[in-house]
Amino acid sequence: MTRAGDPALSLAQVVRSDRGRLIAALIARLRDFQLAEDALQDALEAALRHWGRSGLPASPQGWLLRVAQRKAIDRLRAGARDGRRIADLTLLSGEEAAEWAAEDIPDDRLRLIFTCCHPALDPKSRVALTLRTLGGLTTAEIARAFLDREPAMGQRLSRAKAKIAAAGIPFAVPGPDLWAERLDSVLTTIYLIFNEGYLASSGAEPLRGDLCEEAVFLARLLIYLRPKEPEAEGLLALMLLTDARRAARIAQGVLVPLEAQDRRLWDAAMIAEGLALLDRAMARHTPGPFQIKAAIAALHVQNADGSGTDWTQIALLYDSLLRMEPTPVVRLNRAVALAEAGALPAALREIETLAVALDSYPQFHAARADLLRRLARAPESDAAYGRAIALAPTSADAAFLRARRSARVKVQADTDIPVLGQKKAEQTPGPSPTGRYEANDQNAPSPSRPK
Amino acid sequence: MKYMALIYSQDGTGPAWGTPEFQAMMQGYAALNDALKAAGAYVAGDALQAVDTATTLRIRDGRTETMDGPFAETKERLGGFYIMECADLDEALRFAAMIPTAAYGSVELRPLVVWN
Fold it and tell me: d(Cα A335, Cα A343) in Å, to the nearest integer?
């Protein structure tokens, strides 16, 4: 069957929907990330020429896979040096004649996800490699998303691919003994991508929606490939419940705290999907950190008019989270929830114990400033705001904090001006600052890693 | 692939000789040796004498310099090693996780170069 139409457009559509699957199938055969990528690139270039002349093939995916495989053989022949490569070549030649319809191409993307997110790669490389191979972003796009120079990002990707080959990182779905650790690494990588989009770690642009969408796509893909994982469902729920508020989060370049957001701008369909997913995950009775964070996010969005948030319940959820993730950031978030539930002095005492651990963390100073302000300790509050503003990662964060500082509120009962504690909480249950700062901010407290 | 597991720990952090904990650690090593051999993964492995027995040699401008002590003074000392034949890094990591010293020291895994 041949169809009329612009071959470049058809190719772009195939690339968009099937690149991950094609690259996974090629890596499964070639056992070489770089070779697979180069061969697919060759095949795409060939497609542009051939499809323009002779129309779309019956199975564009099968055509690309077959041609990519031939291109890989050409590349191997040109560079054949060692025995392993020659063995690869022989293996490939045997398969060369195979024809695949799109639905016959085995789906190796789950193996690809676990390889890209292997803990033997450093977290930023996991993010970059996942976006490159599964998300199909170009090196330039990934560099832009992380405000890196393109050559630096290219080198990072090459180093990661070289380590996969040299260290023998398997192209495999991990067995049951490694499953929990490896799944966690995959979920964390996806969440880092989301947070980088939702809470840009630097720069003038406070939101990068394309990264949020990539992260949601990856989580959906993971759930499609391996259903019934409650933490994967929890992660997707958390991201949907957070991303649903994206349009309301910034107004005129200033962060809008959750309680002051225009709820008409929230995406009701995303919220409904997130809540349903969370219900499904919790019904599996295997709680985990992402499900708890999603439950906290759910409490925030289910509170229709912004006045009756159940802070006591949120503080209890943070208690559970603290047992699983005993980090200073979770402790800070729990203290903020306590403050909102009415326990101001206790919350401040708790926050003061984190002064050393979180000194370079802007949210710590912002939360402390807010509590001091509400306890009518204005000079200390101003100083803490100053520190938070100095550490603010984006101009929207800084603008928000400056507005908070100059809003001279004397006591805690301010209803029309949202308090920072709520802003803090807005950032917390959704994309928890944990993921963002631990991963992206060199100066921020990092999770204790086994040495 | 062959992997070398380099076993590091800080002096004085492991169980003392003669204690039940030391006994348990040695049993752990014996169990690992058995597991490696049963899997056909055992190539070599041993413990090293303490770091104060180390001698370092280097040749500079054609002159051999021999010195007392390890190459680098670090808190964590290389105390032993395994060479293991494994299908991939995950298999090597599984065995590395069975090295008792990993509970208080650390294990570095390095693939050996394949010479053609």
Answer: 9
ipTM of model over 0.90: no
- Of the three residues A70, A90, A107, the one that is the final residue of a domain is A107
Which of B1, B92, B116 lies nearest to residue A83, judging by beta carbons? B116
Residue with tokens 């992997």: B3
Residue A214 lies in a domain: no
Q: Which of A30, A28, A164 has its CA nearest to residue A85?
A: A30
The answer as to whether A343 is a domain residue is yes
pLDDT band at B115 (very low <50, low <70, confident <90, very high): confident
Cα of B68 to nearest chain A Cα, Å: 28
Q: Where are the domains of chain B?
A: 2-111
Q: Measured between beta carbons, which residues in chain B are less than 8 angstroms from residue A172?
A: 88, 90
Alpha-carbon distance B29 to nearest alpha carbon in chain A (angstroms): 20
Q: Of B9, B85, B89, which to mutate for an interface test with A (greatest number of A Cβ within 10 Å)?
A: B89
Question: Chains A, B: CB contacts under 8 A, how many?
Answer: 34
Considering its fold, how many domains does chain A have in total? 2
Burial of B60 (0-12, 13-18, 19+ CB in 10 A): exposed
SS3 A216: helix
Helix or strand or coil: residue A80?
coil
Unique residue bearing structure tokens 């000194």: A359
Q: Is the pTM of this model over 0.95?
A: no
In CATH, the number for domain B2-111 is 3.30.70.1060
User: Is the distance from CB of A189 to CB of A126 less than 8 angstroms?
Assistant: yes
- Asked if residues A434 and A329 have their Cβ atoms less than 8 Å apart, the reply is yes
Contact between B92 and A83 using a beta-carbon 8 Å cutoff: no
Amino acid (1-letter code) at residue A267? D
Per the CB < 8 A criterion, the answer to whether A10 and A51 are in contact is yes
CATH code of the domain containing A395: 1.25.40.10
**Residue A375's domain spans which residues?**
286-451
- Render pLDDT for A389-411 as a digit per residue (tens, 0 to 9): 998 888 888 888 888 888 755 44
Determine the distance in angstroms separating the CA of A87 from the nearest CA of chain B, rounded to an integer: 14
Could you give the CA distance from residue A18 to residue A21 in angstroms, rounded to a whole number?
5
Q: Encode burial over A386-407: b for 16+ CB neighbours within 10 A, e otherwise.
A: ebbbebbbbebbbbbbbebbee
What are the tens digits of pLDDT across the range A187-240?
A: 999 999 998 888 765 555 655 778 899 999 999 999 999 999 999 999 999 999
Q: Compute the distance between CA of residue A252 and CA of residue A243 in angstroms, rounded to an integer.
A: 19
Nearest CB to B111: which of A166, A178, A451? Answer: A166
**What's the half-sphere exposure (Cβ side, CA atoms, 13 Å) at A149?**
3
**Is residue A144 a part of any domain in this protein?**
no
Sign of CA dihedral A417, A423, A424, A426: positive
Is residue A316 situated within a structural domain? yes
| Beta pairing partners, B58 | B65
Residue of A nearest to B106 (CA): A451
Q: Are B81 and B48 in contact (CB under 8 A)?
A: yes
